[in-house]
Specification:
The complex is a heterodimer of chains A (about 1000) and B (about 260).
Chain A: H1 3-14, E1 21-27, H2 34-45, E2 51-62, H3 68-79, E3 85-90, E4 103-110, H4 117-128, E5 141-151, H5 155-166, E6 172-175, H6 204-213, H7 220-233, H8 239-248, H9 251-254, H10 256-259, E7 261-264, E8 267-270, H11 272-275, H12 277-284, E9 289-291, E10 298-303, E11 318-326, H13 328-333, H14 335-351, E12 358-368, H15 385-403, E13 407-414, E14 423-433, E15 446-451, H16 461-464, E16 469-470, H17 473-476, H18 486-501, E17 507-510, H19 515-523, E18 529-532, H20 545-550, E19 556-561, H21 566-575, E20 580-586, E21 591-596, E22 599-605, H22 606-611, E23 617-620, H23 638-647, H24 655-658, E24 669-671, E25 674-675, E26 681-682, E27 686-688, E28 697-703, H25 706-709, H26 713-731, E29 738-745, H27 752-772, E30 776-782, E31 786-789, E32 792-795, E33 799-808, E34 825-829, H28 840-845, H29 860-872, E35 878-881, H30 886-898, E36 901-905, H31 920-926, E37 933-937, H32 942-947, E38 954-961, E39 965-970, E40 973-979, H33 980-987
Parallel strand pairs in A: 7-23, 12-13, 16-31, 18-21, 29-30, 36-39
Antiparallel strand pairs in A: 1-2, 1-3, 2-5, 4-5, 4-6, 7-8, 9-10, 10-11, 11-14, 12-14, 15-19, 15-20, 17-19, 18-20, 21-22, 24-27, 25-26, 27-28, 28-33, 29-33, 31-32, 34-37, 34-38, 35-37, 36-38, 39-40
Chain B: E1 2-8, H1 15-24, E2 27-33, H2 34-39, E3 49-52, H3 66-85, E4 89-93, H4 95-103, E5 115-118, E6 126-134, E7 148-154, E8 158-161, H5 164-172, E9 176-180, H6 188-191, E10 200-204, E11 210-213, H7 240-254
Parallel strand pairs in B: 1-2, 1-3, 3-4, 4-11
Antiparallel strand pairs in B: 5-8, 6-7, 6-9, 9-10, 10-11
Classes of the chains: A alpha+beta (about 1000), B alpha/beta (about 260).
Amino acid sequence: MQSNGTARTAAALLQPMARPWRVEIFAREPAVDSKAHGALKRLHEAGTSSVRSVRVGRGYLLSPLLAARTVQTIVERLLVDPVLDRATLLAPSDDAAPLAPGVHRLCIARKPGVMDPVASSVMRALRRSLLADKPEETARVGYFQVIELEGALSRAELERIARQLFANDVVDDIHLDASVLMLPAPAKAKARSAMSVPLRHLDESALLELSRAGQLSLSATEMRAIQAHYQELGREPSACELETIAQTWSEHCKHKTFTGRIDFDGELIDNLLKQTIKRATLELNKPWCVSVFHDNAGIIEFLPASSSGSGDAGGTGWNVCFKVETHNHPSAIDPFGGAGTGVGGVIRDILGVGLGAKPIATTDAFFVGPLDLPASQVPKGCMHPARILRGVVAGVRDYGNPMGIPTVNGGLWTHARYVGNPLVYAGTVGLLPAACSFKSVQKHDRIVVVGGRTGRDGIHGATFSSIELAEESQVVSSSAVQIGDPITEKRVQDALLLARDLGLYRAITDCGAGGLSSAVGEMGAELGARVHLERVPLKYPGLAAHEIWISEAQERMVLAVDPAQLAALLAIFEAEDCDATDIGEFTGNGRLELLDDGERVGDLDMHFLHEGTPRPVRRATARAPRQEDLSVPACADPARMLHMLLAHPDVSSREWIVRQYDHEVQGTSVIKPHVGARGDGPGNASVLQPLWDSARGIAIACGASPRYGLLDPWAMATASIDEALRNAVAVGGDPEQTAILDNFSWGNCEKPEHLGDLVLASRACYAAAKAFGTPFISGKDSLNNEFKTASGTIAIPPTLYVSALAIVPDVARSVTMDLKRSGNVLYIVGMTHAELGASVYFEQLGREQGRVPRPDLALAPAALRAVHRAIATGLVRACHDLSEGGLAVAAAEMAFAGDLGLDVDLERMPLAPLPDKADELAVRLFSESCTRFLIEVEPEHCAAFEALFARLDLARLGTVTASGRLVLRSGARVVLESPLESLRSAHHGGFQG
Amino acid sequence: MTKALLLRTAGTNCDRETQRALELAGAKVERVHVKRLIETPALLSSASLLVLPGGFSYGDDVAAGRLLGFELRQFLSTPLARFVEQGGHVLGVCNGFQVLVDSGLFEPAGAERSLALGPNESARFECRWVVLEPAKCQAKWLAALGPLPMPSAHGEGRFTVRDAQTLALLESSGRVALRYAKAPGESEYPSSPNGSVGRIAGICDATGRVLGLMPHPERNITAWHLPDWTRRAPRREGEGLAFYRGLVTAAQAARPT
């Protein structure tokens, strides 16, 4: 956008706006208004019985400058469906639309400045067609939801309903009538960035106040380091410079805790990440690791160049990459927007890895409070966990589906400690030609920003994610919240991959936390960069230079382009309808220079920016695993307990989530999230066939054991890795070609016991990765997940979410978990210990204490390899891992998924010696010991199968039957017998959205 | 070789797998952005087949398929009508079907639209496998096909008509092309995933050359696409491929390229 153009628009907008045209659109037939049925049902669930009927519609605001005839045409041709809709059109001079007696209206519109993709799309369409020859301001459009409720309701009740079902105060305004709505607010004159922020003469408390008031999230030590730097320079920093330093040094961008110095009960650890997680990868030194820990995502080899085939699979060779991100704090205050932009962000990570990869799968995992929490127990300032979960699921759905990326794997875990601080993980897997795996910026390359426009959204997201949430977070942090626009990101993806294949740019990165400041700062860290901030395309005029520089507006990426190729690159983006703008140059002088209309608003030394962070020593202390009481109480009624466990939110069916995601798009699906005779068996992992003409596949799996973390962080970490690997191996993944990802979400690590837990978990990661031979290729940490209430602070359980990406040598050998045929033999792999600490069984009994499962790292790798060999040689008909709820749950799931009965003798399970007061039957049924599988084998393959497990724990447990019943016996005594239908309905009976 | 144009725009996202299915069925595929087709409608003259793949064109903002349907109505209605008149075939899958319905191409020129695809009865986007049964219709090549299992994945696929008369006319004039099958004892939902009137999954125009359907035949092409393939004997290919073969053959016969 030209600066004079901006000025003209601003002048036009400064004129007082008249009330716009309003169009309200409802379903013609109330009987088919399915959104309204859903809303009414939820209202009745929430105990609001006074509402008799609901209508849910949508509304548009159109410019008052338009003639009535033009408005009529726009409404008829563009906004209304002649079969489905009925519209009411109100002229600027009209007051509120009349309402029938007893009917109330709610209008919910985005707050000014919050992205509204629908309004943008309509504007774009109008400017190209019906309003192509009219002034720009005639095409301004507003969008809102309009809801009509029938019943006796007070104003307070109406607003409560609005907040409960339709609106989020952080991003939405609630009105009782559309006549008060106005088109997007006129811009003020351009704000100025401060050229000088005096800090050279401040004392420590004044420095801290400056950091707090400016939302910089910098510590006293860091503020003093900045002060010393500017004292040396003999001047004060500009606002742009101070903001750049704050963004670059934020915990979110710099990982100061993980890479800092730690005093661990007297032992100095210099860079925990390097000492544990990265060290394992370095020492394993796998030849198939292509790029680890230094790009946007880890890259491994998928199909080597030598194994040439025809078409896609031939020639150059292909790599795959994987990245998982957290988006916890934004999702806590706006679940829909937070989760959506989380997905959008991690997709951009993949678009920005190497020279750009094509996203081929996404994953998501949610950790939320109890879904049945009584409303009275939801802390002030928090949303109910069920609402958070519905919101984040919708957020992932409405970003991933439009992007056309199958969402194929994930998980859901619940715990009381996530109430104030839910965790939201989103991951993306990418596919890229091997030759596109690396990037390099060269001197004089142009800096090109592509994709979305820049607005005030998301200012201070990076520093916000590094602080604790509190009751007032919803108020102070709303500028950190954003709404995603997946179609803009899809445009970026389409144009980018075309440009990549033509070799039109040399380097790329995404605009994530810290916006342009981080993206350009990182890309130019070696060479230096000069940016002309007035060239950055804006959503609306009026932004100050530093706001443009640190805005975290979504769907933007930065490219380094050879000047000779700039024109060709811009032409591709133009053809794909995607903004691309040259905003500066990588200079070679090692400085970060920021100009605004020719004025120098920042000039920073790249070396100080990237290397000047002080590295204080943080104190950490180890705590012993809490396992004083190792007893295991007996189970009075195993069948009833099994039904309760199947309905537990961490176990029960997630079909209501999974089916809202398009897990089939791109046509690569081999093993789907749900499997079995009726498609209702919870699969272990997904398998994809990324290239059409190669039968090589990938398995995508995950593991997490947050309940264990409170008792024993070391066991939690190893068990989570074991689970992710079990899941990958169970579908056909090769454990010797498996990469893993670590995503830590922790409480405040200024507290020595939390940091001590982190040290233990990181060391566990090293030990497990080394033992299994599975390198970490990427990871991320979010280390300040606490919620402050009036009565104290709630920290989340130490949570490690592990993702696994495994090569499947031949997708035709993939295996699912559903039983296949009556008469086949069922085996168990692995040893069962009395490990029920923090198990779902103990949770039902109201206790927690006990030994937490931990894999036997000496034996587990060999067991995984043996299972894989059995699958890869075609000896396995079904395979399921044992996790929450132990053998009983796994056996039940296999049986109902296959519509086949099962007869199992528990006495045959390999069982380790039990501690005192441990009930043997309860241990056999519900222990959650690691590295165990149930495997179905045809009778004629039993000998070959058993031979693969010669020195491992393996037992023939029972037989698949046609009885339609799950029968678990102890020798001759039947201890549990249940029809499949009742198990299935228990599994589907939990929370269903 | 049969030439197919694959129409894309911002938010089209099933173009690669649709291209693959068409190629396996013997077509030569050219991908074309709607911007380019608006500039050069003559691109249609060399093709036998125009395919609108699935996705979320322009984010499905306003309504699914609306904004691209609007562009077709504003800028391409004459060239598209002429293309069909001259023997060209048009296929719309999922979002492509929504766009075609909106574009008016299924109905006589100038008539007010009487067909629509509304929000699913469940009010949710749903991804699940369904089985389609070809009906006796103007798209004669469909009669050669058996039941077609394939994934359905949409939030706005409930086929709706203005009135009973419209439905009666559709049925009597052979314009109902595909219905959601229901096995004995199976419930209405989810075997019909969205509440469509008459369990209609796909329709054609009066010539039989314009065809649209909500589910995705291009997602049942390989030996491993069926959700329960691990329970079955090995297969060579998915049923969706026969669908595309039938289409490509019919398109070639009607307008050889």
